[in-house]
Design brief:
Blueprint (H helix, E strand, L loop, with lengths): L9 E4 L5 H12 L7 H9 L9 E6 L2 E14 L5 E12 L8 H15 L4 E4 L6 H6 L3 E5 L2 E5 L4 H6 L16 E2 H5 L2 H8 L8 E2 L3 H7 L8 E4 L9 E9 L2 E10 L3 H15 L3 E5 L8 E2 L6 E6 L14 H4 L3
Parallel strand pairs: 4-5, 12-13
Antiparallel strand pairs: 1-2, 2-3, 3-4, 3-9, 5-15, 6-15, 7-13, 7-14, 8-10, 10-11, 11-12
Length: about 325
């Protein structure tokens, strides 16, 4: 740890000019030195987001960013149709030479205070086992374990799934199955027809055509849209991507925008058969028929109230598209 004291640091809202020192620190601290997509990925998440630009805070020493904390803007719909403004706690790092000064906690609590004053309702995230205790000490609570489900392509695929218990790759594998999701969803008519089948109960993401376009737009993620009936989005469709998990090829099912469970199950089966993926994975909410539950395997959703009361655990109706990746 550096001999610098916490009192020597300047804590303030991030400015665009901070990128020059923040980005190298983030790359080095988060193991992204060799990732050619990293800066573009951050820009897509935080500056092109359909819900608005992400607020962020920095800790500086002698004008150089040594700590960074940002929150991804999000919107949920409640059952009464009202919008719940939210942010997701993401992308935080401290220069290794400055660890032990409480920078993570200071930046997070500064963000909490300013976001509350701005009227943001809640913070949510799915922290890992290492970071969760720190969040719980700052007022977060565990809302629920999100219900993960899988569909194997064949009995043999179960072996691949069972022996590939490692983190999935971030960037997607190429496939020609279905349509380029970002291109297809840029057609307002296609998006409107699919959104007729969007989740309509529980606390769910405020899905709009602009949201669908943004959510699927980042090229290296290679999101695909498979329609139940070619050329007819009114019949429903699924949004997916392929990623490697150890030796297995995994189909991540982000959205099932379908009129009924049977259509959803048939589309997931088609994704598997046409891509050759070993299994499909998604959250068992809404129309997720065919997905076999994986007990005690889903991420833990945590929340912190700001200017609004958080939903009850049973109200949450999230899909993989709401939580994967960020």
């Amino acid at each position: 740890m550096t001999s610098v004291n916490a009192q020597d640091l300047v804590i303030r809202a991030a400015e665009p000019s901070d990128d020059a020192s923040a980005l190298p620190m983030l790359r080095a601290s988060l193991g992204k030195v060799d990732d050619p997509h990293y800066e573009a990925f951050l820009s897509w998440k935080h500056r092109e987001n359909a819900f608005g630009t992400s607020p962020a805070w920095v800790a500086l020493h002698d004008g150089v960013v040594v700590g960074y904390r940002t929150f991804l803007r999000w919107e949920f719909l409640r059952d009464d149709g009202k919008i719940l403004r939210a942010v997701r706690a993401v992308d935080t790092a401290t220069d290794p030479a400055y660890r032990g000064l409480g920078i993570f906690r200071t930046l997070t609590l500064q963000g909490v205070a300013e976001l509350t004053l701005s009227g943001v309702g809640i913070i949510f995230n799915t922290p890992n086992d290492q970071s969760r205790p720190g969040y719980l000490k700052m007022g977060w609570t565990v809302a629920r374990r999100l219900p993960v489900g899988v569909m194997p392509r064949s009995p043999g695929a179960l072996v691949s799934m069972a022996t590939s218990k490692v983190p999935a790759t971030l960037w997607s594998e190429p496939t020609e199955v279905g349509l380029d999701a970002a291109v297809a969803l840029a057609d307002d008519a296609v998006a409107a027809e699919l959104l007729r089948h969007a989740p309509s109960a529980g606390v769910r993401t405020n899905r709009t055509p602009a949201y669908l376009v943004w959510r699927t737009a980042f090229g290296p993620l290679r999101y695909r849209l498979l329609l139940a009936s070619e050329g007819d989005p009114a019949a429903g469709g699924v949004v997916f991507r392929l990623r490697r998990r150890g030796d297995a090829l995994e189909a991540a099912i982000l959205e099932q925008l379908v009129p009924d469970s049977l259509t959803g199950a048939r589309l997931v089966r088609r994704v598997l058969n046409e891509t050759g993926a070993d299994y499909a994975i998604g959250l068992r909410t809404g129309r997720s028929a065919g997905m076999v539950p994986l007990p005690r395997q889903g991420p833990l959703l945590t929340t912190r109230p700001l200017a609004a009361s958080p939903p009850s655990p049973r109200e949450w109706a999230l899909t993989l598209g709401d939580v994967e990746l960020f």
